[in-house]
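Repro:
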Amino acid sequence: MFDVISGKIQEASSDKPDLNDEFAKLREITDNYQVPEDVCESYEAVYNMLAELDSAYQI
C-alpha cells in the first residue's frame, strides 16, 4: 500500500492524487483505524496518523 500511495503522489505532482481506493482498502484492513488492544505506542501512532491522513484527504 505504501509503495502504491507514494507512487500516485509522485505522479500527481501538484495535483491531488486519486487515493480513494487505497484509503478504502486501508479502512477495511484496519477496521476503520481501530487500534487493537495491547499494541505498542508506535503501532498506535501509525493507525492514528493513517486515520488523520485519510480524514485530511477526504476534505
